[in-house]
Amino acid sequence: MAQIQNQGFDSSMPQEKWMGDVVLYQFHGFWFSPLLLQGTQELLNQFKPLSGDVILASFPKTGTTWLKSLLYSIINRSSIDQLAGNHPHELVPQLELQVYGPRAVSAPPHLPSPCSTSPSNRIFGTHLPYQIFGKNAISSDCRIVYVARNPKDTLVSYWHMVNTMEMAKRDPWSLEEAVDKFCEGFFPYGPYYEHVLGYQKESIGRPKKFFFVTYEELMSETKTQVKKLAEFLGCPFDNEEQVEEVVRSCSIETLRNHEVNKSSDMSKFIPMPLNSFFRKGQVGDHKNYLTKDMIERIDRITSDKFHGLIFKH
Ligand code: A3P
């Protein structure tokens, strides 16, 4: 794996206008806002996973919030009620934003400190691609869970999310522009396809280190996948009731009804309204938004990049 340089943010880096006034900078083949780049640099320099750590990796809008809830409840089964009072992104902090970087906050008391040196089941999230994060990830026996989602639903979910942000209030982001940027790979943490492939390739033949799952698999066979996830984490369920409790506690219907997740206030840990993480939670929602031409364009790229694996279209 190539050495990732400890360079700081540098205005001579390749840059590309993304949406509105937001400019993305290219770092080792992937696109970042300056804000994310700062936390990423700190993380790469400082984060040494412990052997008991669980890292949830994902491209944004692929089911991160759902997986954070599931991981937290499987690992901390006796304190599953914490989900009622804490946003999933508070229970499982995002490394490059909440542990390192400008939004870093001290961990709530029920979370082990990220500076702890004693092995424990700490859980962190990251949107960093494996091509950048891999060197840190392989430095210990930590486990990596990756969730992937169909590119068209990911894009539509992302487009909705951006339009809830302050910067889109005056000048909403058009779907045409979002599709163009997605297809060209100019997305924060993108290109999407390379992000998915980075983890998918690494996961092959390493079932103890990686758990690679799709949002669609989780939707269609939730209990089966949740049981597999618990086994992977080394915390298998004793009975069906436990599985059902975890599935129910982490369903979008349950989560979106907790006061903490209902608020349209900006979250202090991620620059988004707290309720923006729970929209529809459906497979195939892109059909309500994308035109036939947009779908064909994305499908061509998907088949070219994934060769019928992961997602056929
Ligand atoms: P939609 O916008 O398609 O509804 P992320 O957590 O990575 O930001 O992904 C957000 C997407 O996951 C949103 O998709 C959101 O509605 C969906 N989601 C959030 N919580 C979920 C849950 N518990 N179960 C299923 N989907 C969920």
Automatic annotation (TrEMBL):
Can you tell which superkingdom this protein's organism belongs to?
Eukaryota
- Protein name as annotated: Uncharacterized protein
* Annotated source species: Rhododendron molle
